[in-house]
Specification:
Protein name: FCP1 homology domain-containing protein
Radius of gyration: 16 Å
Structural class: alpha/beta
Distance between the termini: 32 Å
Order of helices and strands: EEEEHEHEEEHEHE
CATH class: Alpha Beta
CATH architecture: 3-Layer(aba) Sandwich
Bound molecules: magnesium ion
């Protein structure tokens, strides 16, 4: 079996990602960052860790396929909540081209895995690597690159997805 690689990193850069990869981003604390807009207002806001230009560069110049795979509990309401956030940050189009109406999004139970999906935005609890394999099964082989802030996910991806390049994002 092809060996996977695990690395601890602080940023997401283009040179970490091979051409034509499938790139999997975790959502909370990986692609979505929470910060306060001003200390006096104490108002929290959400930001994207990478720019839209960066995602466009990965898709258009590097020919990558982009995924968000979150460990949030799989439910129709759960995927809706993630989509509200990706919409708010203007990121949805980089991950899915179609939009299904609320409550009708693809929901799959297979073995121990359960996921809800809109395009390449997937919520599946902690079976992320198993679900990724299931979703790309039968498709052309491409390098798999994973970014996640939780070590358990990095360990699982590196064990379960052969040859994957797994980046553990730390603050
Ligand atoms: Mg996270």
């Amino acid at each position: 079996m092809q060996q996977s690689t695990r690395k601890v990193v602080r940023t997401i850069e283009s040179n970490m990602i091979p051409t034509s990869s499938r790139v999997v981003f975790d959502w909370d604390k990986t692609l979505k960052i929470i910060g306060s807009t001003s200390s006096s207002e104490k108002k929290t806001n959400i930001f994207s860790r990478v720019t839209k230009n960066f995602l466009a560069h990965l898709k258009e110049e590097k020919g990558c396929e982009l995924f968000i795979i979150s460990a949030r509990k799989p439910s129709q309401m759960g995927i809706e909540t993630v989509l509200i956030e990706t919409d708010r940050l203007g990121l949805t189009d980089y991950f899915c081209s179609t939009r299904t109406v609320f409550g009708k999004r693809e929901e799959v139970r297979k073995g121990d895995s359960h996921w809800v999906r809109e395009g390449n935005i997937i919520i599946c609890d902690y079976n992320k690597a198993e679900v990724f394999n299931a979703v790309v099964e039968g498709k052309e082989e491409r390098p798999a690159v994973i970014f996640d802030d939780e070590e358990v996910n990095i360990v699982n991806f590196s064990k379960i997805v052969p040859g994957s390049l797994c980046y553990h994002l730390v603050a």
